[in-house]
Amino acid sequence: MKRLILLLPLAGFLVLAGFLYKGLFLDSRDIGSTMIGKPLPEFALASLEEPARTLGTADFEGPALVNVWATWCPTCRAEHEMLNRLAGQGVAVYGINYKDNGDAARRWLIELGNPYRFNVEDPQGSLGINLGVYGAPETFLIDKSGIIRHKYVGAIDESVWRQQLAPLYRELMDEAGR
Amino acid sequence: MKRLLTAGLLGLTLSLGAQAAIDTYEFADEAQRQRYRSLIEELRCPKCQNQNIADSDAPIAMDLRAQVYRMLEEGQSNEQIIDFLVSRYGDFVLYKPPLTTRTLLLWYGPAGLLLGGFVLLGVVVLRRRGKKTAGTSHLSADEQQRLAALLSQKPTNQAPRDKKD
Q1: pTM for this model (two decimals)
Q2: What is the Cα–Cα distance from B67 to B100, expressed in whole angstroms?
Q3: What is the block-wise mean pLDDT of chain A (178 residues), using blocks of 10 residues?
């Protein structure tokens, strides 16, 4: 009995160390999403490419990536080449131009290439708030009925795509029978 | 020390002033302003994580403050505003998370640890007391005998020196 009590501090330490060890591998930037399993929120916003055109939820055709980006976001620039490559492979990518300047955004698409089927202009970030966006880039994966199935926070690169997003995308393609 | 304290207090008041100057919202009355302040102080910024949206300079915190203000002006209740944000950003945005099975440890962990500490303290104290009343009984019979022999010896070696003074 006495021996066991002497082991108590050690046990306490081990529990604490266990928690801290787990903490090493948690990504604190990723706070999860409440939108998984829900449809894209309703909106009516102007197209970035054709400002006279109003876009809505029904214009998105899944399975697709919905990428939230802005010209003020350096990580988006790093990610852009990867999106170009994905679009080249036939992956459907839609853009939400988040709290940005329309002219700067259009220039960016001319200079760096345009991987997007179309871009929704969200200058006030209202669609962003409804989507639970808190920075850029963020990417949602939607299925054929426009339901959000996955959210990725941060830049998509080759390894993120291969390990996390591509298998999900393929699954959604299979569901859609394509 | 006193000077340091004054400087610290001065710094604190100055920073409070700076914080209040970030947004210029106008409220119908003081109660409304209080509601706004208490709401933005208990809502956590999703981007910067260790700040509430009142203190954070992140763009999203600014947007969420604007959202809270807008909803207050529309006459929505505190619960409606909090539900709106939780439905989009999850429980993460709450500095006062709801009591669920997942947050049991968070809510009752510290109290549990304190209680555990007191129980441990009680056990240790009670054991000490138990030992004292038991006296010298933990000497073996052999040791008792040696002790008695030592006590009965007369201090002959030291006696002469003591007599000098």
Answers
A1: 0.74
A2: 27
A3: 81 93 84 90 95 94 95 95 96 96 96 96 94 93 95 94 95 90
Nearest to A109 by CA among A47, A52, A54, A172: A47
Size of chain B in residues: 165
Mean pLDDT over each residue of chain B, to the nearest integer: 82
Q: In terms of residues, how long is chain A? A: 178
Which of B98, B125, B158 lies at the terminal end of a domain, its last residue?
B98
CB contact under 8 A, B90 and A99: no
| Total domain count, chain B | 2
Phi, psi of A101 (to 5 degrees): -95, 125
Tally C-beta pairs within 8 A across A and B.
40
- The shortest CB-CB distance from B59 to any of A34, A35, A99 is to A99
How many angstroms separate the CA atoms of A11 and A17, rounded? 10
In a domain, B91, yes or no: yes
* Cβ-contact A158, A81 below 8 angstroms: no
User: How far is A80 from A77, CA to CA, in rounded Å?
Assistant: 5
Q: How far apart are CA A134 and CA B45, in angstroms?
A: 9
Q: Which residues, in sequence order, are bridge partners of residue A46?
A: A54
